[in-house]
Design goal:
- The chain is of the alpha+beta class.
- It folds into four domains: 143 residues, Alpha-Beta Plaits (2-Layer Sandwich); 88 residues, Glycinamide Ribonucleotide Synthetase, Chain A, domain 4, CATH 3.90.600; 116 residues, OB fold (Dihydrolipoamide Acetyltransferase, E2P) (Beta Barrel); 40 residues, no CATH class.
- It is built from nine helices and 24 strands.
- α1 packs across α2, α4 packs across α5 and α6 runs antiparallel to α7.
- The longest helix is centred in the N-terminal third of the chain and has 15 residues.
- It binds zinc ion.
- The site of zinc ion has 8 residues, from loops.
């Protein structure tokens, strides 16, 4: 019953605990209780924020509910729910509740997903909009709650989250893996990341003790529902279809070699400097260059087959590297090969008189035939056949971050050198 109701946005963050619960579950329960009290909830938003933020909760997720109703009653209800369920004595759990009737600045959300915000900045934002808010513990949850309530999504996807019976929380989940593979096969590319066919892995069933049974990600509510109907599992207690910034690359900003800041995520254009190397643990290092500046890019072992793409790069290839900049390295999420260089390998030439392969006669001394002693001055240039073509490449679903846009949604576009 929205008659006489006031439009408001309710933001909620950081109700997670190491031993269970999650902010989306509390948001889904809150939405049901609001509807039961006559509020109209016309959108549930799952808002991922900067995955590199220190003190972040797992996945750094906040939620927002876009509603009509009595904002004061909604605020009271949200606070009582947080106090009922969130482990307020856990030092890492610092919930935030925001109810705003007037718009908050979308720029605050943009900063919270691409950079870092402080509690003080959130408080200023809330004060300027005259919003109701409550921060528990150190108040850190107000950052995500404010960002979620402020969010505008230029691009959006959907996730249908299915929650477990509370009596089953912490026990092994019963979700039929074959049905997940079948659901993905029937709905891809309109849904993604339920499973990773290439690595024969289930991706959408968490292993943590939280209330989520599984989640289906996709491009529309209809597609995620269609996939969900094909999944065979234990009985669900609650389901919610969230509008989300997952799979949109909202965390990426254009970056330039030498000007990257710790904890932000970038798309950086450059030229491959040398043949990529594989180090201990199977991690692959790629060095790219833009002018005088070099940037180390990493494809870590968990990115599996993506490392083969990186290993196939050669000096002179032009690329756009995308990922988070941490401790001096760009941790690759996806990469565009803009152009492929001619890869030339030099080797000793054939002997001009007897046709056998010569050997080096020493540095700068040309080549010499061991059998007939003939000399050959110049090395033979062999053009290596390249196994990689221009285009976009990405890590597999098992290694994908929540915010990273999967290529099944179409190629991303980053700046003048990064597009298509
Ligand atoms: Zn010879």
């Amino acid at each position: 019953m929205a008659i006489g109701g006031v439009g408001y946005r309710l933001g909620l963050d950081d109700t997670d605990a190491p031993a269970g619960l999650c902010t989306t579950w509390l948001g889904a329960v809150l939405a049901e209780r609001l509807e039961a009290r006559g509020h109209r909830v016309f959108e549930r938003r799952l808002v991922r924020l900067n995955p590199n933020a220190p003190f972040r909760t797992r996945g750094n997720a906040a939620v927002a509910l876009l509603c009509d109703g009595d904002p004061a009653a909604a605020f009271t209800l949200a606070c009582s729910l947080v106090e009922e369920y969130a482990p307020l004595d856990a030092p890492m759990t610092n919930p935030g509740v925001v109810v705003a009737e007037r718009p908050l600045s979308p720029a605050f959300y943009t900063r919270a997903v691409t950079d870092l915000c402080t509690v003080d900045e959130a408080l200023r934002e809330l004060g300027a909009a005259g919003a109701r808010y409550r921060g528990y513990g150190n108040g850190r949850g107000l950052i995500g709650a404010t960002a979620a309530a402020a969010a505008e999504f230029p691009d959006r996807t959907y996730e249908l989250l299915v929650y477990r019976e509370p009596s089953r929380w912490g026990t092994p989940r019963e979700v039929d893996a074959a049905s997940l593979f079948a659901a993905e096969a029937a709905t891809a590319p309109h849904t993604w990341d339920s499973v990773d066919p290439g690595n024969r892995a289930v991706v959408c069933v968490p292993h943590t003790p939280d209330p989520v049974l599984f989640g289906i990600r996709g491009e529309s509510p209809a597609w995620v529902r269609r996939a969900r109907e094909l999944v065979v599992s234990e009985r669900a207690a609650l389901e919610a279809c969230w509008v989300t910034n997952q799979g949109t690359d909202a965390h990426l900003v254009p970056g330039t070699c030498g000007l990257l800041r710790e904890g932000r995520s970038y798309a950086v254009a450059g030229t491959v400097v040398n043949v990529p190397s594989t180090g201990e643990g199977g991690h692959v290092t790629l060095l790219i260059q833009d002018g005088e500046c070099e940037l180390r890019c990493m494809a870590y072992e968990p990115t599996k087959g993506f490392r083969g793409v990186i290993r196939a790069l050669r000096p002179g290839d032009r690329v756009v590297a995308c990922g988070s900049y941490r401790q001096g390295s760009l941790n690759l999420e996806k990469l565009r090969v803009v152009s492929v260089a001619e890869a030339v390998v030099l080797r000793p030439p054939l002997c001009p008189s007897c046709g056998r392969r010569t050997t080096s006669a020493g540095a700068g001394k040309g080549f010499k035939c061991r059998r007939c002693r003939a000399r050959a001055p110049a090395a033979e240039r062999v053009v290596e056949e390249r196994s990689i073509a221009p285009g976009w490449y990405e890590v597999p679903p098992v290694a994908r971050r929540h915010l990273a846009r999967p290529l099944c949604r179409g190629p991303p576009a980053f700046g003048p050198d990064g597009g298509g």
